[in-house]
Amino acid sequence: MADVQQIINDVTKVYGKERKALMPILQAVVKIKNYLDDQDLISISKALDLSAAEVFGTASFYTFLDIVPRGKNVIRVCKTISCHMAGKDEIIHAIENTLNVKTGETSVDKKFTLLSTNCLGWCHKGPVMLINDKVFPELTAAKAIEILQNYQEEE
Amino acid sequence: MSKYLVNLSVNDIPVSVPEGTTILAAAKKLDFKIPTLCYHEDLCVAGNCRVCVVEQVGARALVAACATPVSEGMQIHTNSATVRTARKTIIELLLSEHNADCTKCYKNGNCELQSLAHEYRVGEHVFIDLVNGKHRVIDDLSPSIIKDDSKCIRCQRCVRTCDELQGVSALTVAYKGDLQKISTFLGHPLAEVVCTNCGQCVNRCPVGALVEKTYVEEVWNAINNPNKHVVVQTAPAVRVAIGEELGYNPGERLTGKMVTALKRLGFDSVLDTDFTADLTILEEGTELLTRLKRALVDKDTRVALPMTTSCSPGWIKFIEHTFPEFLPNVSTCKSPQQMFGALAKTYYAQKKGLKAQDICVVSIMPCTAKKYEANRPEMRSSGYKDVDFVLTTRELGMMIKQAGINFHNLEDSQYDSFMGESTGAGVIFGVTGGVMEAALRTVYEVVTGREVPFKNLDILPVRGMEGVREAKVKIEGCLPEWKFLDGIEVSCAVAHGLANARKLMQAVKDGSAHYHFIEIMACPGGCLGGGGQPIPTNEEIRAKRATAIYREDEGLPLRKSHENPEVKMIYEEYLGAPNSNKSHALLHTHYLARRRY
Amino acid sequence: MENSRPKRVDIIFLMEGIDPIKVVETTIKKSPDDIILEMIDSGLKGRGGAGFPTGLKWKFTRNEESYDKYVICNADEGEPGTFKDREILDRVPEKVFAGIAICGYTIGAREGLIYLRGEYNFLLPTLNEKLILFNEGLKKIGLDFSIQMRSGSGAYICGEESALFESMEGKRGEPRNKPPFPTVAGYLGKPTVINNVETLVYAFMIARIGSEKFKEMGTKDSRGSKVFSISGDTPKAGISELELGMTVQQFVDEFGDGDTKAVQVGGASGGCVPRKMFQETIIGYEGIPTGGSMMLFNSSRSMYNVLHDYLEFFTEESCGQCTPCRVGCQQLLKGIEAIKRGDKSPGYLEDLKKLAKTMKVAAKCGLGQSVANPFVSIVSNFKEEIIY
Ligand code: SF4
Ligand code: SF4
Ligand code: SF4
Ligand code: SF4
Ligand code: FES
Ligand code: FES
């Protein structure tokens, strides 16, 4: 398990202990463990001398700062218009079937969480998805499944 | 920066106002009222409800009157067709996500949304009901406050209050878009987070989303129960504010009428928290002197100084969460309300030949935190819950109305005896700086044998509405047993509103400020601005209540706590001396370090 | 230029023979006031969509007295259908950096920040590396200025400039009241120039080639060229840099699939142009302004679905603070659903249009104000598709 306190210390060294360090800290924690749990939010609020509620309020504003448990790989399929027209539904169905989850859920082995999201900025190459920070444009159902398999095999 | 005058017109009437004035204020100067919801005089401007939009000639869109400063040559229309349509639409939108069951709502009759809907005669619902289907969450686990999200209009007044005025930030805005809501940390109940129960958010919530938990029915039941002897105590700040619930202007002193009303409501004995306020001065003053002696004479380094007051339960909960390392500095004295409760079920019971379990103690308080305080497990010194029910000033107003009492025509009457006698020093507990002033009046005299060296006993340096105030009182010519204090300048500080308290304590913590004695009241203005006081509140209203309290003090024959005959009597008959074992058992308490989230 | 083809231009992505640091070095030999004059003269307007004259923005900020000032590059490109800033940052990042540095010199700032949307996090490692080199380059030429990256985390509204400041300050991205404007009180309350990625590259190019060359392109109200993000029903999806001032018809002739029935200009918050108005609608500030997103729909598409998608987008991405937008978006969305289901009569569409118009004038920021653009344009032009 990543040591969140360590992350906080590292980030505050760069950005200071003021409120403007909050986003970088939240982002750094999410980068390592994909979501923020209650304890993380509390540790962060202590480090920056903010109320825990404020840290929660800020984190919950941002779609990518998840505050519910997420799998190791977070899949975000674009659901906005260009990708919609290009067939995002098909992609989502394929992934749902492959992972045996519904959109919003995490697979039993905690390896994948499937989410849909708003425009990813690849509208000319839809459908598109992000897995963590990585982009996969010009998807077909078959391609999406193959990509997931590669992730499955990774370890 | 020097203030230029800016010329503009509102509804074609010219007006000049200082630079930086908002359109809202400029219009007000011409007696044009622009409706507002998220705007509150005590808070920074949010500009989010948008009901205050007005037309600025030449602008692409309407502008928010509360958030837009005037500029030269501006032409404003506050009631054009576009403005009216927009305003009405906004009210309709708010109602579409609002659980508008006014007749069953606690705020019925005193609700800003309701009055707007009424003013604009919003009739049939145009829009689709968004409440239905959304989960209706009511948090009623706190003994003080109920939070009902289905009534919330997201004006964020509560969030700003809790942050800007109270420095607590127990509330936040969470999520975004259609999911946006007002929440505590992870949506936990208020009773389980850092909320101090101060009720300042309740005072500023325009609707019924944050209200006090009411115990009016319980109190009626007690009154109607022939086996109960129901004793009521009234806090100092109630008498100068109850009028606002009953149609008076702010700042009316209505002590006599209030006592009569309470008698008519059927309380068996109408007594005064001011009595225990005086008692607090003797207990707390003695504690302070003892601490000073231990520090200065015995050179005991463990003595916790500065000593802080303890009569504000919002402050107590705040320090328990936020500065637990300073808990030893807090006076061990219970608040006057709890001293009263403990004595009512012991001393009073004994003298009246009653059994403690047959006595029901009701307090009328300007405060919602007192409801929580009465429920604390520490507050059972009599072997029973010392104070059974706490009502706010607002709830008392409600009872008077329910009983059909024509308050305006009531005669004055006196508090019952005993535990009904008080001095001016007890009364000023209701205003920020008052406890300090009362304590100084007594302590100085105890130590020197002379009255405090201030004209008319008015210790002006501790008065006022400045967030943090400091005063120094030089002690000279001490009586023999207090010789060690001779020449010492007692350094005092006063803070009101928890944001100011935080600043002050932070300064003490980092060593940048040194004091002997600190008075802290959780609410802006002290108890007179308490979370249980009539709504609305603003600086002007609080100042009027403060003036009334000082008038009350001036008008009383006795103005020093140690001169209160009933206080003297209780020491002779029952307690022995201040800080005696018996006092400790009944009138003092301890605190608990709590989590800081 | 009746029926001529849209003119392709190559300014933004041109890299050949350009050394950005060199250009900065030459430019900062001029006085800030001269640079500002050049920018104003060029007629360059913000390429994010709002279209505020860039030179004036710089001038206002320069005129503010403050030890701390900031230049912020808005790379929070979230408008559905827009992807040009990603391409620019991917292909010619140094030109963006150089634009920031020139602006910094001009207004008297020492710090520049790039706020990159979280969706583009994959660009971060490269950008950071390149920034180290670039900052060193600035040091070498003696400019006391450096640039850093900041990231967003998935919130469309943070593209709104004051929401972006809030986000960088560690808060919820809720737009602020204006005034004060960023030029007076922006990031951390200090005078700030905030410019879109593309704008900064044009500024850089104007510094390099001079305003005269730039002015030669486009029209009186819309000087220069613009990078378009083209998607939807088109065989030529992708990025194109085109001269401003063409009609939608010209655009469709070039990029359509032969069956285009509508073009959404300016992304979800823009307006929908139906076929019958292609000829008369000019793409530019005198016609329909755009941040560069062009989505084409052919006759197989249901405009109800299109509108529904947009409204869902706004319902989720509204910051939620102000009434007209938070509740208004939900009402518009639920409203068209109810009409479709038959729970509300077709006449209800008129109520919704009125609502959209109120949102346009009463919402706190550009997001809520612009929801009316797609709503009114789609509902007015494709009424039958919405109802039946
Ligand atoms: S909060 Fe106001 S408008 Fe809402 S139900 Fe209660 S009284 Fe009515
Ligand atoms: S009662 Fe006081 S502390 Fe609690 S939420 Fe309200 S303002 Fe904050
Ligand atoms: S709880 Fe009350 S004060 Fe707070 S946002 Fe809701 S309506 Fe406003
Ligand atoms: S218009 Fe929308 S996004 Fe803008 S401030 Fe209002 S709620 Fe937020
Ligand atoms: S619509 Fe999917 S990436 Fe833009
Ligand atoms: S009162 Fe002005 S926006 Fe709410």
Description:
The complex is a heterotrimer of chains A (155), B (597) and C (388). In chain A, 49% of the residues lie in helices and 12% in strands. Chain A has helices at 4-15, 22-33, 38-48, 52-61, 81-86, 88-99, 141-153; strands at 73-78, 112-117, 129-131, 134-136. In chain A, β3 (129-131) and β4 (134-136) form a beta hairpin. Chain B is of the alpha/beta class. Helices cover 34% and strands 13% of the residues of chain B. Chain B is built from 19 helices and 18 strands. In chain B, the strands form 5 sheets. A 5-stranded mixed β-sheet of chain B has the order 2-1-5-3-4, sandwiched between helices. A 4-stranded parallel β-sheet of chain B has the order 12-11-14-15, sandwiched between helices. In chain B, β1 and β2 form a beta hairpin. Chain C has 2 domains: 20-215, Rossmann fold (3-Layer(aba) Sandwich); 303-387, Up-down Bundle (de novo design (two linked rop proteins)). Chain C has a 5-stranded mixed β-sheet. Chain C has a 4-stranded parallel β-sheet with strand order 3-2-1-4, with helices on both faces. In chain C, β7 (260-265) and β8 form a beta hairpin. Chain C is globular. The relative contact order of chain C is 0.13. The A-B interface holds A 38, 41-42, 45-46, 50-54, 56-57, 60-61, 67 and B 163, 168-176, 183-186, 193-194, 596-597. Bound molecules: iron/sulfur cluster (4 copies) and FE2/S2 (inorganic) cluster (2 copies).
Work out the helicity level of chain A. Answer: 40-55%
What is the second-level CATH architecture of the largest domain in chain A? Answer: 3-Layer(aba) Sandwich
CATH topology of the largest domain in chain C: Rossmann fold
SSE run of chain C: HHHEHHEHEHEHHEEHEEEHHHHHH
Helical stretch count of chain C? 16
- What is the approximate shape of chain C? globular
Order of helices and strands of chain A: HHHHEHHEEEH
Radius of gyration of chain A: 17 Å
The third-level CATH topology of the largest domain in chain A is: Glutaredoxin
Amino- and carboxy-terminal Cα gap of chain A = 17 Å
Number of helices of chain A: 7
What ligand molecules are bound, each kind once? iron/sulfur cluster, FE2/S2 (inorganic) cluster
- Principal-axes geometry of chain A comes out as elongated
Whole-number count of domains of chain C: 2
CATH class of the largest domain in chain C: Alpha Beta
Tally of individual domains of chain A: 2
Instruction: Kindly state the percentage of residues in helix of chain C.
Output: 40-55%
